[in-house]
Design brief:
Elements: H1 2-21, E1 50-63, E2 66-69, E3 74-80, E4 88-91, E5 103-105, H2 121-131, E6 139-144, E7 152-153, H3 155-160, E8 166-175, E9 184-185, E10 192-196, E11 216-220, E12 225-235, E13 243-244, H4 251-262, E14 270-282, H5 283-292
Antiparallel strand pairs: 1-2, 1-3, 1-14, 3-4, 4-7, 5-6, 6-8, 7-8, 8-9, 8-10, 9-13, 11-12, 12-14
Length: 294
């Protein structure tokens, strides 16, 4: 009971913090320090109400049999508009890089060979040399499959740790000399739709429920930037289509091999865990700072 009251109190506090942030845009601020993160925010767009900069620095994506740890930071940036029934439309970043195309190494590479747990450093080094080299190593890149306007975000759901906080239509680009340049899982016509939550999921079997968290919040830059650190957004109820476009003219041979490596990618067999630091500021505050410090 005490834990429940504590969580309710924290949720209410975060919700209030988000609301207060919405009133902070008229105050003076500087486009330096924490505000530099919003350089690509489309604050001149009349529909933009708040700027967002989210840095994913950890977590993992499990696609069927393949688990890809997030090692290199991935950026989601842009702005979002006035919410309608708790959901806000997203507006793409001014440099068009709303979701950074960050390649992550697929453990085991093309052959899917991973050294057993507890292996010696020598065994791991030899495995990487033979199976994760320039020819057999594979990189996976999460890319937007739809225009940025198809992204949806909910501040309230994020704060309350309930329902969908971020809806993200994506596809996975698999890169390797043997696979060619057009090997994807998902596409613009058949995207992977992540419905990420800071709360608890309700996946299909064999997956079990997992929980995210809103994270700890802090006001920066004299209360004009809200930062959520230790944020975790999760989804393990999504499905993914079969890989396609792999191997070029040899696709009729390569695509089945890749899909056999991935295994089952229907609902209940995939997971996304994103560990983030999220910064939010009003578009009005960013605009004012820009005007004061051109």
């Amino acid at each position: 009971m005490h834990k429940s009251r504590t969580r309710m109190g924290c949720t209410a506090f975060v919700a209030v913090a988000l609301a207060v942030l919405g009133l902070a845009g008229s105050a003076s601020a500087k486009l330096v320090g924490e505000f530099t993160k919003f350089q690509q925010c489309p604050w001149t767009n009349a529909e933009a109400k708040k700027c967002l900069y989210s840095l994913t620095e950890g977590g993992k994506v499990i696609l069927g049999n393949k688990e890809v740890p997030i090692v290199k930071p991935v950026t989601l940036q842009g702005a979002f508009g006035k919410p309608v029934e708790r959901i806000s439309p997203f507006i793409e970043a001014t440099n068009k890089v709303t979701l950074s195309k960050t390649s992550e190494e697929v453990p085991g590479g093309l052959l899917g060979i991973v050294p057993p747990a507890g292996s010696s450093p020598l065994v791991k080094a030899l495995s990487k040399f033979f199976f994760d080299n320039a020819l057999t190593g594979v990189n996976a890149t999460l890319e937007l499959a739809k225009p940025a306007s198809e992204i949806k975000i909910s501040e309230l759901n994020l704060a309350e740790e309930a329902e969908v906080a971020l809806k993200l239509p994506v596809m996975v680009h698999l890169e390797n000399p043997f696979l060619g340049k057009s090997c994807f899982v998902g596409s613009s016509s058949s995207p992977i739709t992540l419905e990420l939550t800071s709360g608890e999921t309700s996946p299909s079997s064999p997956n079990s429920p997992i929980s995210g968290k809103a994270g700890a919040f802090e006001f920066l830059e004299e209360g004009r930037v809200l930062q959520l650190s230790g944020n975790e957004l999760v989804d393990n109820k999504w499905s993914a289509p079969a890989a396609s476009g792999c191997g070029g003219i040899l696709g009729f041979l390569v695509n089945p091999i890749i899909n056999a490596q991935l295994g089952t990618t229907t609902k209940g067999h995939n997971t996304a865990i994103l560990k983030n630091t999220i910064d939010i500021a009003t578009a009005a505050a960013v605009k004012k700072n820009n005007e004061e410090h051109p």
